[in-house]
Design goal:
alpha+beta, 3 domains, five-stranded antiparallel sheet, 14% strand
Length: 683
């Protein structure tokens, strides 16, 4: 896979619906094999002493029941098995947790993860302690009380610990619902099951029924040609139900057909059951030609839902004892985004038409339906997703980042006006870099990393999830802007303006130049060959991540960002010494690390050739008659022929300032001298 496709994939994900993953994705290549608890783990998680027996529970909500002296001591579940928990790394994440009979989390233990937390100086022990702090959380408490009792996410590991938090909460609520410890969170109860025959389903109100005889149809269609002959026979005997509650769906279709009918549904999709007999067909035959069912529709308020062949599943027979024989049995999909709430009342309408001279005679046959209360799941309000809380809590930071991105967009779009004013350009750039370092970097930890590129790649392959990347709004906004910026301007939109460590290098080199520290000009042949280092590092980190994420994260320590920016030099001395050495080299070679060692810059440079626009202006004399821009380029991105290498350019605009400055550009100065009047000449 081309790395360009990887980075541009982020742009696609920002503009297209993300793949939903209710469980472990097949793309991950991981089999759904949860880590089984031992008796010792069960005793520790449930806080139970004495001999224990673990009973494996299968079905819709799998897990283990812990028995002590024949009594239920608790229930153990796996986040990987119950919710397909995938971490920020895109790899499986498994936490075993125990619920007491009172719907309280007794304990939790992290048993499997591949998170990039070690690169931030956070150990497995830190994560284990975080997971252990979920003990005592009461799932039956109101949402506000649960939110107040949740442990705070770990700083500098917000995304990883946020994913763990949501996985535990989602899985624990699923297990508690499945074991009857709490009531549902609203909507349809898709867990409970009771065996009923046809008459039992009718008695509970699971099925709605309307019978239209031939006489009623004749009277409604008598103005059309060939109306049905009057009589007591059935024109349409219509039955409707919602299949999603297992008490309805499994009893009507049987386990195998029920599973098959719902297998194609995702997320909050629902399934509508329609069965009929009589002269009139609720399906008709027109759908076979154009794929649209023109006879049947569902109405709820002002919303009307029609069906296509993609929504349709044919059922040949019913499994419920005592069910009558039907001519047609259909299951129609109700997509979650259709605006229909299957838990609320709705109307199914089947149209019968006959051609007439003044227009078709239409007989709308309406059948109202409401799910019985016994298959609805009223209960406490569901927990607010962590990413929503994060965006609410970080509104000042979001506003600040948005203002920075808006200012940078204005600078780049109006670059000719900016560089035409040298004082504005120099002062504005220094001020922007200072904000990038002090506020964006050290203040709110807005430093992007090659680790995030690796995590994004693995997430694409394992099933992309919005909530994973939305948990950190600052990083999400930056990556979204960078993805667009790569298409418009190239890598420099980040490396030259928004990278805190890049700003630290440039500002320290400016100070060094002010103190007259000699600058080393690296010979062009050596300069170009040293580029190999950063590209090799990038490819090595990405490739190694598919073999061992842990080893890839160790190699990713080539980035000094964690030490210098995220941890503000509060780290073991070897890491600090490495940062000091890099910054010291940068005092003599401007942006030394950016030029030769940065794997993130290499990853962003690869798709730089895909950028749509080229707003950096050059003259035919550049490189031939004048090499001033080459000598002053911040990262040596201009070759001896005057060409700007988009893979290396950080868009600092220094060459554009020289290009427009009549006091600096040798071409403009030569033109000014040629146009100046000779000494003593009469004006």
């Amino acid at each position: 896979m081309r790395i360009a496709a990887l980075l541009c994939g982020l742009l696609i994900c920002l503009t297209a619906p993300a793949a939903q993953a209710a469980g472990p994705s097949a793309a991950s290549g991981e089999a759904v094999v949860p880590t089984p608890p031992t008796s010792e783990i069960a005793a520790r998680l449930t806080g139970t002493e004495g001999p224990l027996r673990l009973v494996r529970e299968e079905g819709a909500v799998p897990g283990w029941t812990v028995l002590s002296d024949g009594a239920v001591a608790g229930h153990i579940g796996s986040t990987w098995e119950l919710s397909g928990s995938v971490g920020y790394s895109g790899r499986p994440l498994d936490v075993l947790f125990a619920l007491g009979p009172e719907a309280t989390i007794r304990g939790a233990a992290l048993v499997r993860h591949n998170e990039p937390i070690l690169t931030l100086g956070i150990s497995d022990a830190d994560i284990q302690r975080y997971v252990g702090r979920f003990a005592g959380l009461d799932l039956s408490a109101p949402a506000e009380a649960r939110a107040a009792a949740l442990p705070d996410v770990i700083a500098r590991a917000t995304v990883s610990t946020g994913v763990i938090r949501d996985s535990i909460l989602r899985s624990a609520r699923t297990l508690a619902l499945g074991r009857g410890l709490i009531s549902g969170g609203g909507g349809i109860d898709r867990v409970s099951y009771a065996s009923l025959d046809w008459d039992g389903l009718v008695a509970m109100g699971a099925l709605a029924h309307r019978r239209v005889d031939m006489t009623e149809a004749h009277d409604a269609l008598k103005d059309g040609r060939r109306p049905p002959a009057p009589g007591p026979g059935a024109f349409l005997d219509l039955w409707v139900a919602m299949l999603d509650p297992p008490t309805i769906g499994r009893n009507l279709l049987g386990q195998q057909a029920f599973t098959a009918a719902l297998a194609g549904l995702s997320g909050n999709d629902a399934a509508l059951f329609v069965a009929s007999r009589g002269l009139h067909s609720h399906r008709g035959t027109g759908w076979r030609r154009d794929g649209v069912f023109d006879r049947i529709a569902l109405r709820q308020g002002d919303t009307v839902r029609t069906f296509t062949a993609e929504d349709y599943t044919r059922i040949d027979a019913l499994a419920a004892p005592g069910a009558p024989a039907f001519k047609e049995i259909s299951v129609f999909r109700l997509a979650a985004g259709d605006g229909i709430d299957p838990a609320r009342p709705f109307t199914v309408e089947v149209r019968a038409t006959r051609a007439a001279d003044g227009g078709d005679a239409v007989f709308p046959i309406a059948l109202d339906y409401r799910l019985p209360a016994t298959v609805l799941a009223p209960g406490p309000v569901a927990d607010v997703p962590l990413w929503q809380t994060a965006w609410q809590d970080k509104r000042p930071q979001i506003a600040g980042v948005a203002a920075m991105l808006a200012a940078l967009t204005a600078i780049l779009l109006l670059q000719e006006s900016v560089v035409a004013r040298p004082r504005l350009y120099r002062t504005g750039r220094l001020a922007f870099l200072a904000v990038t370092l002090l506020w964006l970097g050290w203040g709110i930890n807005g430093q992007l990393s090659v680790v995030q590129v690796v995590a994004f790649l693995h997430a694409l392959l394992a099933g992309f999830r919005w909530e994973t990347f939305l948990i950190d709004p600052v990083i999400f906004l930056l990556w979204g802007f960078v993805a667009l910026g790569l298409l418009f301007w190239g890598r420099g939109v980040y490396c030259g303006w928004l990278c805190p460590f890049g700003a630290l290098q440039e500002l320290s080199n400016r100070a060094a130049q002010a103190l007259r520290v000699p600058q080393i000009a690296v010979p062009q042949p050596l300069h170009e060959r040293l580029w190999i280092l950063k590209y090799s590092l990038f490819v090595g980190i990405v490739g190694l991540s598919f073999y061992s994420m842990e080893q890839a994260l160790i190699l990713a320590e080539a980035e000094p960002f964690k030490t210098a920016i995220s941890m503000r030099m509060m780290r073991a001395w070897p890491f600090v010494a490495a940062v000091v050495a890099i910054l010291a080299a940068g005092l003599f070679v401007e942006r030394f690390y950016c030029r030769y060692l940065c794997p993130l810059g290499a990853g962003l440079a690869i798709p730089a050739k895909l950028k749509v626009f080229d707003w950096l202006r050059r003259r035919p004399q550049c490189g031939r008659e004048c090499r001033l821009c080459e000598q002053h380029c911040t990262v040596g991105a201009i070759d001896p022929l005057g060409r700007i290498n988009p893979n290396e350019c950080i868009l600092c605009l220094k060459c554009q300032w020289i290009f427009h400055d009549r006091q600096t550009c040798t071409v403009l100065k030569r033109r000014a001298r040629a146009q100046a009047p000779a000494p003593g000449a009469t004006p």
